[in-house]
Design goal:
CATH topology of the largest domain: Udp-n-acetylmuramoylalanyl-d-glutamate--2,6- Diaminopimelate Ligase, Chain: A, domain 1
Number of domains: 4
CATH class of the largest domain: Alpha Beta
Strand order of the largest sheet: 15-16-18-19-20-17
Strand content: 25-35%
Distance between the termini: 39 Å
Number of strands: 20
CATH architecture of the largest domain: 3-Layer(aba) Sandwich
Length: about 425
């Protein structure tokens, strides 16, 4: 039987987008405590089922799929531009497809009006009315308000009518920046993107060691999740747990309880770090304590390879830092990266920032280790010594050399030079990510 917490989540998911939700209402309808209702609503918000809007409350929204993550809801636009909702509150949960700047002649506007868009315009009531009648929400810039007629149309068509104090250019910049951030987030791989959900092999506590060996032979995995009657993860069995146990011994007395797990929203980078650090070949994936899949080390390797081969749509700070650097091989065979210190990489004083320097040092080490083993690595430890600052526009070079390596670990020294003069050194410890 599902717990009260799960019952609340199922109830929220069954509601239509736009439905208002409150702790008291949930507690009354499902006969649960307000504390239980509050915790479940918070979890639903984390899962993207609901959102909280100022002066409106908590509202059920459509869960955004991975391919639609770059789309903003009108409620998020209100928050981004620090706006005020003048009308059409019931449509705030909807997503916008694109935004239009109403700076053209009135006769030319019609061709740009598509339902689901957002018109960014100043105090042009005729454009506001035309947009709402065409299924387009309206964002009024410059701190202007709307006439009663425009507010009535917004409420009639359930299309948000928003006002903000920024000018049109600044407003468009803010929204475009938010969309750009969404593109970056869309490129991030999560466990839910690669998790194995088919042919999930599990065992129960009352099964025996003999059953464990049978599943290991069928799947090739030595770590087998243990679940209860409701499908909730209660433990995991590994060869170390079994030891010299007899074939008839129950798994309940042998399994490891409270094993390391990840959720569907855990990033692949974080999951891979935990798997490498803890030496785990198979990680259970849970949602509300229920086992929904497993993540293998092979899944992580394939995901990381996919990430490296995909074109970058949105650039992160790390991408911008490394954009002007290229891989080179020095005369003595040492691997290095070389490039210019751009203003983006500097402090307010015009010298290379420590964060950018750390990024360069780590990339130089990765380049060196990839040339050596052709596998991905995780930087575990970094000790850096800054001898003197590097100025903006200077051309620098970060050269890496492997000092020692083994089956799982490698030690790398990185020397950073400016016009031949050493200005920073670092010692790193890295771990291989292998199948």
């Amino acid at each position: 039987m599902a717990t009260k917490h799960q019952q609340i989540l199922d109830y929220i998911e069954s509601l239509a987008p736009g439905a208002h939700i409150s702790v008291r209402k949930i507690a009354r309808v499902l006969d649960v405590s307000e504390g239980t209702a509050y915790r479940a609503i918070k979890e639903a918000q984390g899962e993207g089922l609901v959102t909280t809007m100022e002066r409106i409350g908590t509202v059920r929204i459509e869960r955004q799929e991975k391919q639609q993550i770059e789309r903003l809801t009108f409620a998020e636009v209100v928050s981004i531009v620090e706006g005020t909702v003048l009308g059409g509150r019931d449509g705030l949960h909807k997503s916008l497809n694109r935004f239009i700047i109403g700076a053209m002649q009135f006769d030319d506007i019609t061709r740009y009006l598509n339902a689901g868009s957002l018109m960014i315009v100043g105090n042009r009531e005729q454009v506001q009315r035309l947009s709402l009648k065409s299924g387009v929400a309206v964002l009024i810039t410059g701190g202007f308000t709307a006439s009663p007629t425009v507010e009535r149309l917004a409420n009639e068509y359930d299309l948000p009518l928003i006002s903000c104090s920024y000018d049109t250019y600044t407003t468009a910049q803010l929204i475009n920046r938010a969309l750009y951030d969404r593109l970056i987030k869309k490129d991030i791989l999560y466990v839910e993107d690669v998790v194995q959900k088919q042919s999930l092999s599990t065992l129960c506590e009352n099964q025996t060691v003999r059953d464990y060996y049978r599943v290991v032979e069928q799947t090739g995995h030595a770590r087998i999740p243990i679940v209860d009657a409701d499908g909730k993860l209660v433990g995991i069995v590994t060869p170390r747990d079994i030891g010299e146990a007899s074939g008839d011994e129950r798994l309940a007395s042998r399994m490891t309880r409270h094993p390391s797990t990840v959720t569907p929203k855990t990033t692949i980078a974080s999951a891979s770090h935990r798997m490498v650090w803890e030496g785990i070949e198979l990680m259970p994936v849970v949602h509300n304590r229920r086992l929904i899949g497993v993540l293998s080390r092979q899944d992580v390797i394939r995901a990381l390879q996919t990430m490296s081969s995909q074109p970058q749509v949105g650039e992160t700070v790390e991408d911008l830092t490394l954009r002007n650097f290229e891989e080179v091989v020095l005369g003595d065979g040492t691997s290095a990266i070389r490039g210019d210190v751009t203003p983006l990489m500097t402090t307010s004083g015009g010298t290379l920032a420590s964060g950018a320097l750390t990024t360069l040092i780590q990339e130089a080490a990765r380049v060196c280790l990839r040339r050596m083993r052709h596998v991905d690595v995780i930087i575990e430890n970094l000790t850096m010594y800054l001898l003197k600052p590097a100025a903006v526009d200077s051309r620098i070079e970060a050269a890496a050399q492997v000092l020692d390596f083994g089956r799982r670990y490698a030690k790398v020294e990185v020397v950073v030079r400016d016009k031949g003069d050493v200005f920073a050194k670092a010692l790193l410890t890295a771990q291989w990510i292998e199948r």
